[in-house]
């Protein structure tokens, strides 16, 4: 069962959104406290002093661009399509259907 999402609730985890943003410049030292994050989305660029949970200027750097998706796309051409509808030809001629009424179902009182 998946966990539900509560709008405006307490965020789970502590990973910054800037880690996967293409507008972020992150410089990390050997310790966790030695990290500087700069946002290049705004002008002038600013240093972000805390981990970001939500950002309106976020652009996922792991998501491919339109040009990259076009290069990866498989080109499908329309070939000779199969005929649509019922099969016709030798062996598939017209068939006749005979309807046989049972005498038991026929009631003379219904007329």
Name a few traits of the molecule:
little secondary structure
Description:
- This protein is mostly loops and 111 residues long.
- The protein has a domain at 11-75.
- Helices cover 6% and strands 12% of the residues.
- The chain is built from one helix and three strands, in the order E-E-E-H.
- The protein has a three-stranded antiparallel sheet with strand order 1-2-3, with no helix packed on it.
- The radius of gyration is 34 Å and the shape is elongated.
- It starts with 23 loop residues before the first strand and ends in a 39-residue tail after the last helix.
- The mean pLDDT is 78.
Number of helices: 1
User: What does the oligomeric state look like here?
Assistant: single chain
What order do the SSEs take from the amino end to the carboxyl end, as H and E?
EEEH
- Compute the CA-based radius of gyration: 34 Å
Percent of sequence in beta strands: 5-15%
The tally of strands reads: 3
- Mean pLDDT across residues: 78
Query: What share of the residues lie within helices?
Result: under 10%
Instruction: Give me the side-by-side strand order of the main sheet.
Output: 1-2-3
| Dominant shape | elongated
Write the layout of secondary structure elements.
Elements: E1 24-28, E2 35-39, E3 46-48, H1 66-72
Antiparallel strand pairs: 1-2, 2-3
What's the short story on this structure?
The chain is low in regular secondary structure. 6% of the residues lie in helices and 12% in strands.
